[in-house]
Amino acid sequence: MRKAESRAGMDEEGLIARFFRPLAGAPGALSLLDDAALARHPAGHEFVVTTDAIVAGVHFFASDQPDAIARKALRVNLSDLAAKGAAPAGFLLTLGLPKPREAWLKRFAGALRLDAKAFACPLLGGDTIKTTGPLFVSITAFGTVPIGAMVQRHGAKPGDRIMVTGTIGDAALGLLLKQGRGRDRLGLTAKAAKSLVQRYLIPTPRNPLSVVLRRHARAAIDVSDGLVGDVCKLCHASGVGAELAVARVPLSAAAKTLLDAKPNLLATVLTGGDDFEIACAIPPDQLRRFRAAAQRANVPVAEIGHVVAKRGVRVTDQEGKVIRFTKTSFSHF
Amino acid sequence: MRKAESRAGMDEEGLIARFFRPLAGAPGALSLLDDAALARHPAGHEFVVTTDAIVAGVHFFASDQPDAIARKALRVNLSDLAAKGAAPAGFLLTLGLPKPREAWLKRFAGALRLDAKAFACPLLGGDTIKTTGPLFVSITAFGTVPIGAMVQRHGAKPGDRIMVTGTIGDAALGLLLKQGRGRDRLGLTAKAAKSLVQRYLIPTPRNPLSVVLRRHARAAIDVSDGLVGDVCKLCHASGVGAELAVARVPLSAAAKTLLDAKPNLLATVLTGGDDFEIACAIPPDQLRRFRAAAQRANVPVAEIGHVVAKRGVRVTDQEGKVIRFTKTSFSHF
After folding, report:
1. Residue A278: which of A196, A186, A207, A193 has the closest Cα?
2. Do B92 and A49 touch (CB under 8 A)?
3. DSSP SS3 for A240
4. What is the mean pLDDT of residues A60-89?
5. More confident position, B124 or A99
6. To the nearest whole angstrom, how far is the Cα of A131 from the nearest Cα of chain B?
7. pLDDT classification of A329: cutoffs 50, 70, 90
8. Predicted model pTM
9. In Å, how far is B188's CA from the nearest CA of chain A?
10. Residue A148 — left, alpha, or beta (φ > 0 → left; ψ -120 to 50 → alpha)?
11. What ipTM was reported for this prediction?
12. Contact call for residues B219 and B318 (beta carbons, < 8 A)
């Protein structure tokens, strides 16, 4: 197959040197001049490793700005590190390109560089390859934790409070607005609509909370596939259940406006996904300290329910009635 | 976008449990029940990390057997670890699937399991996602080396011998035969033709040589993009040049037969790539020990030239005439 390709165009080495070497400041990256990178964790620590890929037409729009694509690709991985209590250490990038366009690559790499710096997560290495299909970005990110300190998905116990960061549903509503291409803002102001779309395009991973989670959380998960489904996963892994109160789920002003106008968007909010917030189980005796530490880390947190012994996640509305969902989270297939 | 997807089909968790959990025996994989894995290198060691992706229609044929696709995806990464002198420690798998088919996944995962075991490189984690385009497999592999002992691409010095493992050109010739779909075996027996195609489909990474390289090589690279081009890269990184003698390049019997019949296939042999052999620079005083250690490791090695101070790689034919190539290696774009 390889031979059938065009001989024209940018060569891989040149592309890496021009666009990606500036991101590879860590000594272990070896200036991207070798086929592999070096990564070493401090003594008494270990690596938390996660990998997430995004594909045009599935996880983002091919027409999205290259800046947004780059940031989303890195941030969905940073979000996993945050939920696991790990400090970012570096990442590997695999870029599947239909055809390399300079202007696009420049903006993609430029944005990635800014995020790599902002989150202290340098590029260590990668692979740039041709694809005949849609663009894809696959990232493997490394973080460090003291040995045995990773916050796991399991471990929640009855009585623990279920806490969630930020606001829920913005990204899923933003996607809805984006799919409508602005023809229908569903009653929102242009600014409010834009804020939701922005939440879909560029998530805000909660890395400042990672140390707080290590200290106070019994279990955690990042909310990527939908709040209800991800709390289900945490509970399932822990062999417990949970009761969640819709009235306590933190919502942005824009999301509230939309929900007031169209109450049937509730399922989108609670099961739509792409939030990249963190849901965690905090033992009651840690609650005060957790809240205080989260505040110091500048991450808003809200209590949305509690863990119960009985399996299954029950979501109740304002009147205490159980809400049923046709599906609890985004299905990957 | 995510919302536009079908609700039918296999869910990701079920798919992972059924097909991939059996590969995830390492404790750090956490039975694939979390969003991240744990990886720890021994004290005094560090990780060598590499990532390589393959895409249907570019690096393999969509119709290739799932066993072969799985093995190639892992082995191209193992080959990088081998060239860098690293012992495999584990890998992360990202699988971009047009649609998940059970029979396909079963064979893919089954073959991957065998290779993971054979190369002592367990699955640590991964991501399975939907793509609207061709199937792709992106793997990030980890290996361990004593701190500072990674065999780098640079470091070759004038006088070093250029050595290469195995035989060169088989995979590129195999690809040619495969593209001809058996209509023209170019004079080879069916068995010989099949042996070349097999070399294209399933490379043999030279991991048994990794310790030998650490002890005796000044620089090394795995031959993935073509022998001449990859030796160029090694020399360029080292700030030196090389002289290679075509007559000394090790060829399989099948490749020899083809070259005798069609001498113009020489460029395919020397620049076609997909060999996944190792080229390395061995100081003259290490040569005997290198050869003996390679023999003990059961990896055939051959001297194909030597490093010179003058930059550039000169390839000479039997009569000592310099051969020029229109391109020295596979271009990724």
Report:
1. A207
2. yes
3. coil
4. 97
5. B124
6. 6
7. confident
8. 0.94
9. 21
10. left
11. 0.93
12. no
